[in-house]
Specification:
The protein is α+β, with helices and mostly antiparallel strands. Helix content is 34%, strand content 24%. It has 5 helices and 8 strands.
């Protein structure tokens, strides 16, 4: 039990993200018990799935493209210690700290191909496991897709033209 107050509680936010990711991942073994306020305004599940980044060893992708995708899903680049929803770059390697839990991944590139993916210890950088595939979930539940943003901009511009004509 965590008492509710008006402040944003990082622990509650992490648990909310984790529960939502589990539910939207298609797992059939998830039960969430919470107040309605925890899921109110959760956002569009389709947008959530469209912003998910799936990486596999052998995928051809420019490292710069992955950096842009991470920023699009609200991750922050850092040169220091990895915290939740951050990433750092060293040479042909991107370390990514998940928005949930303590998962930290090291993605190594060779040219424009993902050569290795490792689960690493966030504090020490020590390799814990070699992985073939990972999913990087958005930093929060309110990340709209590019098409939704473009539609919103178009609607705003249309409303602006109508208001200009009216005045």
């Amino acid at each position: 039990y965590i008492e509710k107050d008006l402040a944003i509680n990082a622990e509650i936010d992490r648990m909310r993200l984790s529960a939502t990711f589990s539910l939207l991942s298609g797992r059939r073994d998830v039960v969430v018990v919470s107040s309605v306020s925890c899921i109110y305004g959760i956002g569009n599940p389709a947008d959530f799935h469209n912003t998910l980044i799936n990486l596999k060893v052998g995928d051809v992708m420019a490292m710069k493209h992955l950096m842009y995708r991470l920023v699009e899903i609200l991750y922050t680049r850092t040169d220091g210690e990895l915290e939740a929803s951050t990433f750092r770059i060293k040479g042909d390697t991107i370390d990514i700290r998940s928005s949930i839990g303590n998962h930290c991944y090291r993605v190594q590139f060779f040219d424009n191909e993902i050569e290795n993916i490792f689960l690493i210890d966030a504090a020490t950088g020590q390799r814990l496991d070699s992985l073939q595939q990972i999913n990087i979930y958005p930093a929060n539940l309110f990340v709209p897709s590019k098409s939704r943003i473009e539609n919103a901009i178009q609607n705003i511009e249309n409303d602006l033209e109508k208001q200009i004509a009216f005045f």
